[in-house]
């Protein structure tokens, strides 16, 4: 199997992806890694000696965070991001990973790879931390602002396959994000989606509220991209603020505070790791005709490594074929 990496996307490129590829290539010696980007900069990363299963494809062209996504994908075919998508589309790689411009990654997925049969709107599907540590797959997190009830049903079917083969949950519980748990709650689209999900073969557990979602009441939660993106960014902001506040309190001057910090430090590190987005890999772009994983723009080497691990599992379990079969079976 082959994983192609856009080494020029993200806040810490190319250092973070290069370090992660070195580690992943050693861990997954059965996998070929293609690193796309400025060869001089890639080789200039400290200790950037790769195992034999890593090759570098040079390009000087990069899609920046300020570029308009669709225009950039069309006008920069030699960019590291578009080249990675093209390799997947041409079956030269099984899955791509990038921490670059989110809109451009989604545009490249849709325009270069195309959509799976019977999928009208692909969805971005990150895993959000939950209080019980299990995590919840949320989709859509921003690809489609105005999803239809049928789109939400598609998301649920794709998520069920992905969750089964990548997150190792045999019969995932599917929830519909709503303003209340009652069957009659929600707008017209959500009410129709509730009916479709209730009649499906999925393990649908009904409507869930955002607070219940974070408690782990479902393994998958579906919603439109507008709501999902708000939920995602609120969760990220709350996490950052909470741990920043804890750090401030635990580093206050005073003997008692310092003693308490020393005693609690191991437990706090465990708690932090439970809610650390870096431990959950990237967000797959489900519904496109190729493996496409969006790593967080602020990914450090650890987050990059987890995204590459996720990509390896996606390819090893032939998840794209399973998604394709699941959507064809619905026709």
UniProtKB/TrEMBL annotation:
InterPro entries: FA_synthesis (IPR003664), Phospholipid_synth_PlsX-like (IPR012281). Keywords: Acyltransferase, Cytoplasm, Lipid biosynthesis, Lipid metabolism, Phospholipid biosynthesis, Phospholipid metabolism, Transferase. It catalyses: a fatty acyl-[ACP] + phosphate = an acyl phosphate + holo-[ACP]. Signal peptide: none annotated. Its EC number is 2.3.1.274. It is an enzyme of class 2 (transferase). Homodimer. Probably interacts with PlsY. GO terms for molecular function: phosphate:acyl-[acyl carrier protein] acyltransferase activity. The keyword Signal does not apply. Gene3D superfamilies: Isopropylmalate Dehydrogenase (3.40.718.10). PANTHER family: FATTY ACID/PHOSPHOLIPID SYNTHESIS PROTEIN PLSX, PHOSPHATE ACYLTRANSFERASE. This is Phosphate acyltransferase. Pathway: Lipid metabolism; phospholipid metabolism. It is found in: Cytoplasm. Transmembrane segments: none annotated. It comes from the Bacteria. Belongs to the PlsX family. Pfam families: FA_synthesis (PF02504). The gene is plsX. The keyword Nucleotide-binding does not apply. Catalyzes the reversible formation of acyl-phosphate (acyl-PO(4)) from acyl-[acyl-carrier-protein] (acyl-ACP). This enzyme utilizes acyl-ACP as fatty acyl donor, but not acyl-CoA.
């Amino acid at each position: 199997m082959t994983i192609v990496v856009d080494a020029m996307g993200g806040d810490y490129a190319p250092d973070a992806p290069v370090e992660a590829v070195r580690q992943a290539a050693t861990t997954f010696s059965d996998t070929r890694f293609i690193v796309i980007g400025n060869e001089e900069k890639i080789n200039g990363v400290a200790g950037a000696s790769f195992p034999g299963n890593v090759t570098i494809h040079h390009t000087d062209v990069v899609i920046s965070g300020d570029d308009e996504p669709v225009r950039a994908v069309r006008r920069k075919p030699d960019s590291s991001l578009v080249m990675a998508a093209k390799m997947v589309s041409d079956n030269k790689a099984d899955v791509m990973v990038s921490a670059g411009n989110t809109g451009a990654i989604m545009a490249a997925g849709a325009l270069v790879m195309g959509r799976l049969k019977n999928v009208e709107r692909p969805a971005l599907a990150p895993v959000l931390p939950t209080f019980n540590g299990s995590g919840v797959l949320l989709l859509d997190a921003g690809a489609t602002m105005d999803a239809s009830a049928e789109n939400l049903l598609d998301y649920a079917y794709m998520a069920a396959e992905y969750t089964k083969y990548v997150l190792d949950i045999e019969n995932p519980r599917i929830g519909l994000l709503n303003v209340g748990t009652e069957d009659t709650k929600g707008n017209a689209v959500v009410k129709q989606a509730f009916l479709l999900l209730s009649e499906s073969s999925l393990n649908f557990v009904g409507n869930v509220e955002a607070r219940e979602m974070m408690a782990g009441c479902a393994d998958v939660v579906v919603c439109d991209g507008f709501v999902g993106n708000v939920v995602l960014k609120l969760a990220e902001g709350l996490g950052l603020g909470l741990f920043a506040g804890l750090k401030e309190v635990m580093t206050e001057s005073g003997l008692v505070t310092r003693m308490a910090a020393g005693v609690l430090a191991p437990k706090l590190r465990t708690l932090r790791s439970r809610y650390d987005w870096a431990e959950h890999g990237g967000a797959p772009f489900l519904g496109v005709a190729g493996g496409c994983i969006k790593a967080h723009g602020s990914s450090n080497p650890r987050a990059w490594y987890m995204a590459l691990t996720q990509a390896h599992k996606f390819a090893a379990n032939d998840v794209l074929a399973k998604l394709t079969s699941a959507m064809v079976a619905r026709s």
